[in-house]
Structure formats: structure tokens, C-alpha cells
Amino acid sequence: MVFHAPAALLAADGPAWLAAIPPAALTAVIFAVRTFNLTLATLRLLSVVRGMRIAAWLLGFVQSFLFLSTLAGVMSNISSVPAVLAYAGGYATGLILGIEVEARLAPGYSLLRMVSSARGQPLLEALHQAGFGATELAGQGLNGMVSMILCYTPRKQAQTLIELAESTDPEVFITSEQVRMHKGGWPP
Amino acid sequence: MITELFNIPVYLLPLLIFSLRVVDMTLDTLRVLFVIRGKKPLAWVLGFAQSALWVVAITSVLNNLNNLWNIIGYAGGFATGNVIGMLIEERLAIGHGHMRIISSRRGAAIAEALREAGYAATELSGRGKDGTVSVISSSVRRRDIMSVQKEIYKIDDDAFITVEDIRPLHRGFWRA
To answer: Which candidate in B33, B66, B155 is best for mutational testing of the A interface (most A CBs within 10 A)?
Structure first.
């Protein structure tokens, strides 16, 4: 029943390939492995928050497997100050990298809330013409009437939309929120 | 350590590691989701239990790294517990959600129905692609979102509904 892992992959005191790495390079390896591990961990966490179950499972499995097959062995070799710094630095860098990757993938939807004091109507028309659903509400601001436009968009297209809005009204005030779920609407 | 402690046969260890990890990651995922919603005491209790279980699981694996099944059990338990935690959190559905309903024709009827069902609803009039629309804002308990959504679709099945997570609010009218 005992399923022996290839020695090259796993060993109690670190994988066999570890011994082949010169101590000087080991610090760099620890940094790289830790960075990659934390990138996966961050993507998993963001999947959890967004309720994406399958992605969370897959990322969790890979992250955990990689942790054991590389880092768990490396951990006993972390004794020098540079190695500790590499471990911590990899953790922090992976965290940032994970956020960055998630922003590139940009799953889900955003709500953009645009407030325009002078050019609400043309802004609304421009959004509709570009194929986005948008709803205009009348509001009152510091200097009288303003338009508030609600616009739902896939996160991937949010940047295009913001640029479009700014080209129509350079003074437009935009905030964006994450939408957890949505049903219906235009375009379908 | 754990095999000697409880006299567990070696072939059961991967299963035990898997179970430990499922429980500890379920707690951990719930903890993260409670942290986001600002539930401090719950987050503390879950964090304590989770890290205690984790220490047992990781030491059992690290002492028996020669068996690949242990590692698969560890990783599989991690991934599975994560998803179970999400499912439990969705069932518990603690907290409130903000529903925003955009309806082109039946806004007044929807607001009326929401109020009749005991929810607070604020109706605004707006302009959409094809003229005037109603925008209705209503904050409801997360566990009520599905039933509220069904009620709305009974009135207007073209309604556009979005839901956002909100932090606990103060004031306003809340269903008892």
C-alpha cells in the first residue's frame, strides 16, 4: 500500500535535486519557489472570495502539492539569513504577483458608477452605442444637478469603458465595485 | 508521531491526513470569509482550531514524506476542505446583500411587492436605453436573496438584478 515517491521529487530532508544546487543558488531557488507558491495561494484566496469553487479546488490541490514536494524539504535548509530573507521575500512577492495575475484574468463583473455634472446625456448615449447597458439617474451635487450613470460590465472591459467615459467627459467621476451576481439585463 | 500515538496502521495514514486537512481547511476558509465580513470572535475561534489541527496534519506528513499517498491526501484534503468551507458559508449566508433591480416597466409593482413581503425598498427613476426605467434598491439578508429574486421575476421576468456584498449597516428599516 505504501506508494514510494520518486526520490528525486520527495525526501524527508529535501528533494534529491536540492543537494545538487550550490548553496549560493539555493537562496534564489527558495525565493522562486516561494513566489510561485504564494501566487497560487493568492489566486486561490481570490477564487474563494468570488465563490469560484472549481478554480479554488484545483488551485488548492496544486498549491498544496507543490508546497510539500518542494518547500517542505527546503524548509529544513533555511538556516542562513539570506535564505530566510528569500523565503519571506518570495512570500511577499508571490502575494503581489497573485493580485496582478488575477487583475489580468479579471473574472466576474463590475459596477461602474459615473457621476457627470455637465455631460450625462452624451455619456449615456456613448455607452449605449458602444454596446454597454447603462442607466442614468438624476442627482444633486455641489453645483446643482448631476447625472449618475450605473453601468455593469465584465471586469475585462472596465478599462475600455473608463477610457470611453473619459473621452466623452474628461471631468467624469468614476468608482467601481465588484458585483457578486447578476441576472438579466441588456445586452443579454 | 501520530501513528505511534494512536497506533494507526500505515495504510490508514493518508486517509487520516486527508480528513484532518479537510476539517482544518474548512475552518480556515470559513475564517477568511468571516474576516472579510468583520466577524471578530468567530474568526478568532476558527483561527485557533484551524492552526491546532494543521500542526498535527503537517507533522504527520513531514514525518512520512516517503509515501506519495500521504502527500496526495494532504493536497486533496486542502483543496476539498477549501470548497466545503465555501459551501458551508453559502448555506450559513451570514450578513446582508444589497440588491439593485432595474425594471423598465414594472418598477412600482416590484417595490410594492418587496414592501408587502416586509423588505425596505427605495425606488429611483432613471433613464436607460429605451427610455424611463425604475431602479430599486433593497438591502436584504443574504439567505433571503434567492426567494426575493423569485418574487421579482414573477412580476417582471425582464428585470435586471445585481447583488453586492455589504458590511453590516445601521439604521434604516430592516425586516424583523
So the answer is: B66
Q: How far is A187 from B128, CA to CA, in rounded Å?
A: 12
Percent of chain B with pLDDT over 70: 90
Domain that holds residue A144: 109-179
Residue A188: pLDDT band (50, 70, 90) is: low
B-chain residues near A137 (CB < 8 A): 124-127, 135
Q: How many domains is chain A partitioned into structurally?
A: 2
Chain A and chain B share a number of CB contacts under 8 A equal to 149
Instruction: Supply φ then ψ for residue B30, to 5 degrees.
Output: -60, -40
**B37 close to B89: Cβ distance less than 8 angstroms:** no
A6 inside domain: no
Indicate the residue of A51, A53, A68 with minimum beta-carbon distance to B74. A68
pLDDT tens-place string over residues B114-148: 999 888 888 999 988 888 999 999 988 888 998 99
Final residue of a domain: which of B92, B120, B153?
B92
Query: Would B174 be classed as within a structural domain?
Result: no
Helix (H, G, I), strand (E, B) or coil at A69: helix
B 94-113 → A contacts, CB under 8 A: 97, 100, 102
User: Could you tell me the residue range of the domain that residue B105 belongs to?
Assistant: 96-166
pTM of the predicted structure, to 2 decimals: 0.74
Q: What is residue A1's predicted lDDT score, i.e. its pLDDT?
A: 47
Q: Which of B29, B76, B87 minimises the CB distance to A61?
A: B76
* B10: closest CA of chain A, how far (Å): 8
Residue of B33, B62, B71, B105 best to disrupt the A interface, most CBs of A under 10 A: B71
CB-based contact A12 B66, cutoff 8 Å: yes
Report how far residue A27's alpha carbon sits from residue A35's, in angstroms, rounded to the nearest whole number.
12
End position of a domain, from candidates A74, A105, A136: A105
Contact present, B151 and B170 (Cβ < 8 Å): no
**Euclidean distance between CA atoms B84 and B115, whole angstroms:** 35
